[in-house]
Amino acid sequence: MAAMYNVRESLNTPVEEAYRVLRTNIQFCGFDKKIKTLTITSCTHGEGKTTTAINLALSMAKSGMKVLLVDADLRKPMLMKHLGSNNFTGLSNLISGNSNFDEVTNATNVKNFYFIACGPKPPNPAEIIGSANFTDFLKQAEEQFDVVIIDSPPLGSVIDCAIIAAQTDGTLIVIESNAVEYRNAQRVKEQLEKANARILGVVLNKVEKSDYRNYYSNYSDFGSNKKINKSWFKKLKKSEKVKT
């Protein structure tokens, strides 16, 4: 392994519960085919896809799965910043043949949680992602880990994600609440479908605390709080109007 890093593993209760639910839903999606490789993308930068990827990886690792988180955003990498890594050797070094798998893989203080940083930014990201070496890397990662989570670039900006998603078992789209137009989200969905990617679902991120707190605190009495249910129903109706 390249290095050992300490990562923050504690989340507040509602957030941790949300990621447990997400983890479970992904496992249910693997009923007919086990999800071993997972692409995470978004429509634009800043929607929280990297944070989602990290927290999902942590949740899976805590459940006993051996998880590898890979920063495949070769244009605007964020994983090193979030995890406090200073190892500039990463995926681009591995794919170009300048480093081996063990040299770019970093362990963390969380049991079963490992990550690979982006590495130096290459001049040709799409070519690197679409190369046979990247495919070989995925196969090797699948052999050594239970789950491989790939933090990819936003699909609304570049095509890299579609190339990655076409090679993985499933894709999650992270969308910031009240920030992305329906047309843009639909365009991302269509691009993934053209690449024959398997879309597992959408993660609605940055939901207002009051909305999430209301839902979480009344989870055991689902259907009993008419005021809260009515407010959520209004949001759905508003969303439908936008779609039409």
Biggest sheet descriptor = 8 strands, mixed
Number of domains: 1
Strand order of the largest sheet: 1-4-5-3-6-2-7-8
CA-based shape:
globular
The CATH topology turns out to be: Rossmann fold
Structural class, from helix and strand content?
Answer: alpha/beta
Query: What share of residues are in beta strands?
Result: 15-25%
H/I helix tally: 11
Question: Runs with pLDDT <50, length 5+?
Answer: 215-244
CATH architecture term: 3-Layer(aba) Sandwich
Name the helix and strand elements from N-terminus to C-terminus, one letter apiece. EHEHEHHHEEHHEHEHEHH
Considering the protein shown, what is the CATH homologous superfamily?
P-loop containing nucleotide triphosphate hydrolases
Number of strands: 8
